[in-house]
Write a structure and sequence with these properties.
about 190 residues; alpha/beta; Maf protein; seven-stranded mixed beta sheet; 7 strands; about 30% helix
Length: about 190
């Protein structure tokens, strides 16, 4: 089976490809000739995942899946949420985003948060959604150099390390993206 993963994020592509069986080959946007920025104009994480998958299916004709992820912090009323990638501005800089979040949480005692990933799959004319959630808390400072995005300041429940300090194997088992991807993989295995 061949599917397009509607992402230009090489880290995400590697992370998901490492979890997929050999029978499923992932094509990147670049490999299908899609070099434009796919609009992410929805007001929800689900909406952005659907927009991206539909864009590839409608404009390039491929079965496709797309994900969108947001970090939702309880004491900030769910911020940064759907704006996680551009929380500190359109430059989409992870350090800037983390710095802004840590600043906004400076006087907050409760630092509970969750990562939420939604994967939208367009397969044989049907659309399916898979959701993964990882609960945890925002640390006081950055720790670790693995992963990407907010990983250095997110400590998942039942762990003392941040996502950026955990091995890729452990992160794939407990992360929001890992959970949503495992649902996707289980579903795809049933489609043979």
């Amino acid at each position: 089976m061949q599917l397009v993963f509607a992402s230009n994020n090489k880290n995400k592509i590697l992370e998901i490809q490492s979890m997929l069986p050999d029978t499923i080959k992932i094509l990147s946007l670049e490999s299908i000739g899609c070099h434009e920025e796919i609009p992410e104009t929805a007001e929800t994480i689900e909406g952005n995942a659907i927009l991206k998958a539909n864009y590839v299916t409608h404009n390039y004709g491929y079965d496709c899946f797309a994900d969108d992820t947001g970090l939702e912090v309880d004491s900030l009323n769910g911020e940064p949420g759907v704006f996680s990638a551009r929380y500190a501005g359109e430059q989409r800089n992870a350090d800037d985003n983390m710095d802004k979040l840590l600043l906004n949480l400076k006087d907050k005692f409760k630092r509970n948060a969750q990562f939420k990933t939604v994967i939208s799959l367009n397969l044989k004319g049907q659309q399916y959604l898979f959701t993964g959630i990882a609960k945890g808390e925002i640390t006081l400072e950055k720790s670790g150099n693995q992963g990407f995005g907010y990983d250095p300041i997110f400590k998942p429940e039942e762990y003392q390390e941040t996502f950026a300090q955990l091995s890729l194997d452990i992160k794939n088992k407990i992360s929001h993206r890992g959970k949503a991807t495992h649902q996707l993989i289980d579903f795809l295995k049933e489609q043979k």
